[in-house]
Amino acid sequence: MSGPSVSVVIPAYNAELYIDAALESVLGQTHQPMEVIVIDDGSTDATADRVRAYGSRVHYIRQQNGGVGAARNRGVDVSAGEYIAFLDADDIWRPQKLEVQLAVAARHPASGLIACDGERLIGTRIEVRSLLSQWIAERMRANGTDELSGRFYREALENNPITSPSQMLVPRQVAREIGPMISGRNDAEDWDYTLRILLRHPVTLHGDRLVLYRVHAESRSGKESERQFVWATWDLRLLERHEALCPPEDREFLRQVRRKAVRHYAYATYIHARRHDPRVARTFLWWLLRQAPTDPHVVATLVATLMPQAATAGIMAATRWARSRARSRSETPR
User: Fold this and answer.
1) Dihedral sign, CA of 195, 298, 322, 333?
2) 42 CB contacts (<8 Å, ≥6 apart)?
3) What are the sequence ranges of the domains in the chain?
4) Where are the alpha helices (DSSP H) in 147-226?
5) What is d(CA 249, CA 151) in angstroms, rounded to the nearest whole number?
6) How far apart are CA 95 and CA 28, in angstroms?
7) Which of 9, 38, 252, 303 is the most exposed place for a label (fewest CB within 10 A)?
8) Per residue in 49-75, pLDDT tens?
9) In the 8-state DSSP scheme, what is residue 161?
10) Residues 132 and 162 sit within 8 Å (Cβ to Cβ)
11) Which residues contact 326 (CB under 8 A, 6 or more apart)?
């Protein structure tokens, strides 16, 4: 192996169906990693047997179930490479992933995070849809380039810039400086990690499609029809956390982002109530009301779900402007 050393960290929980494809994609890299570390987060299926079959090529560690953030932190703690690359156990890398990203990192030595683009894998079908947030692609097109480097903290507060940690390459000194990922089970720990890096460093995002991000029913986001509620709780907890972390000059901007997010989710939940399950929608709206008890749009939306649809036109007309002004928080799935 020549060039910088890379430690690959793979958190795995009941990943027997996907872990072989993930490991083969790592072991087939044109730039071979220094080490491949799988943290088995208390799996109850055959994940251990699948990983152990690779012998000394993969460092297998088992721990009690603590969540994906805790598993990644354990992997970082035992790793030794100059760079850390995360790969979720159900995702796949293109063969040039590490080689290309190390070249990008060499061109942008000040960057605290390198993140590539990719595609979605649904069953055996590849969906050519960017894993980078829409604002990144638009700015790349405007600049006539496929690389974007800078301090994008405010933009990243409005939209998680990347879909999956599988897109990430992080210098070890940066990982050491910013500390571990948050390890709560109901948090957007990868988005939080990106934001904490952006508070201290520029990042570089590049358009090479090097990751296959697998979309499947067993993901921790839960049932597809109700994932928006899971994502909403993650989003709002993250924004609340960063109100304490962000620079004072960004605090009012963050509050505005949070208000827009609340109103976006309130309206989206009303639509879910009309089209799918009003009981689930009302449960979430009661939770949302506790997060924003003075927001009239949440109150109005909750009331509207309790009324016949024909009687709610005026109420929803008064709140629809919030939907149009809020950016789409569902743009980047988890």
Assistant:
1) positive
2) 13, 62, 63, 64, 65, 66
3) 6-215, 224-325
4) 153-158, 172-178, 189-198
5) 15
6) 6
7) 252
8) 999 999 999 999 999 999 999 999 999
9) S
10) yes
11) 260, 261, 263, 264
